[in-house]
Amino acid sequence: MDPNASDEAIERVAQEIRNMGAQTHLSRGKFRTVIGAVGEEAVLDQSHLASLDGVEKVVPIMKPYKLASREFHEDDSVVEVGGGSVPKVKIGARHAVVIAGPCTIENKDMLTTIARHVREGGATILRGGAFKPRTSPYSFQGHGEEALKWFRDCGDSLGMPICTEVMDTRQVDLIVRYTDMFQIGARNMQNFDLLREVGKTNKPVLLKRGLAATVKDWLLSAEYVLSQGNRGVVLCERGIKTFEDSIRFSLDITSIPVARQLSHLPIIVDPSHAAGKRDYVPSLALAGMAAGAHGVIVEVHHRPAEAQCDGPQALLPETFKELVGQLRLIATITRKEFSEIGELANA
Ligand code: PEP
Ligand code: MN
């Protein structure tokens, strides 16, 4: 729309698009409003739309993903996590974030200890799995709803939003009651029903890149969530399968500038699952940040040898704290700022 288009003109155009049988998605930028018309090309009468009051131009978005594309939304999106019982944390544009915690929620005490450590080290969102996607069906699968209860209490008492994985459409109704952010794991990036289901909720979604997914596949998965009306998608690069076998996955640093060019969505890196070994985690985290990521998600454990899952890649609390200090230095170069939360009143 023309930068001076009135609200009535915008609504009129949106109504005409809906009358043609397409869906509308509004994107209000600093300068102009873009009305995304999603539907079959044949139903959209472009020259009619171009003639309407307030319309600057009608541009077909050639990319297969539409709402995820930069064409639809020129500025970086900012996704808010939390609110309600915990503070809101922003991710995207100049807002960077550190999400940290254990791989899996083993028990209440362990969770609380690690959560306090990562809070003290500079994390503003907690991670932890209640339902775990394990390669073997005989590995520990997570404590389910009980873990969600511990996690919610922990986030509330520390004043931190929480992020946890949802593996199946049947878990969405349960998890949405506890979490501030859904995590879609790498192995579920193309579980399209699940993407649609979380897309119908109002909680933001951390979308891990699939083990063998291209950036285009990944953005199409984001599109599934966006198309259901949920605008809160944060991409997460966590490494892909390559022939290299000295590490678990190869962190594809290149995908960060690529995804940022193609899309307005925030993107963070997960160095823990890429490395599979704690020695490599800090370097990968710093590299991701330097490449333009809006933060990191890292696994931390105070007793990694006793961890039920992913112990070898968990950072010790001291190393984590040191890493956050280094990440802050890189953030000044890439003109981002990490969110901070105040001291804990009763710490
Ligand atoms: C996790 O975050 O613990 C996890 C299983 O990650 P991914 O889906 O990236 O393997
Ligand atoms: Mn893990």
What does this structure look like?
The protein is an alpha/beta fold and 347 residues long. 32% of the residues lie in helices and 17% in strands. It is built from eleven helices and 13 strands. Strands 5, 6, 7, 8, 9, 10, 11, 12 and 13 form a nine-stranded parallel β-sheet that branches. Helix 3 (108-121) packs parallel to helix 4 (144-158) and helix 3 (108-121) packs parallel to helix 11. It binds phosphoenolpyruvate and manganese (II) ion (MN). Residues 103, 129, 133, 185-187, 208, 238, 270, 273 line the site of phosphoenolpyruvate (PEP). Phosphoenolpyruvate is lined by residues 103, 129, 133, 185-187, 208, 238, 270, 273.
Summarize model confidence as the mean pLDDT: 96
Strand and helix order: HEEHEEEHEHEHEHEHEHEHHEHE
| Beta fraction | 15-25%
- Radius of gyration, rounded? 21 Å
Low-confidence stretches: none
Alpha-carbon distance between the termini?
51 Å
Instruction: Give the number of DSSP strands.
Output: 13
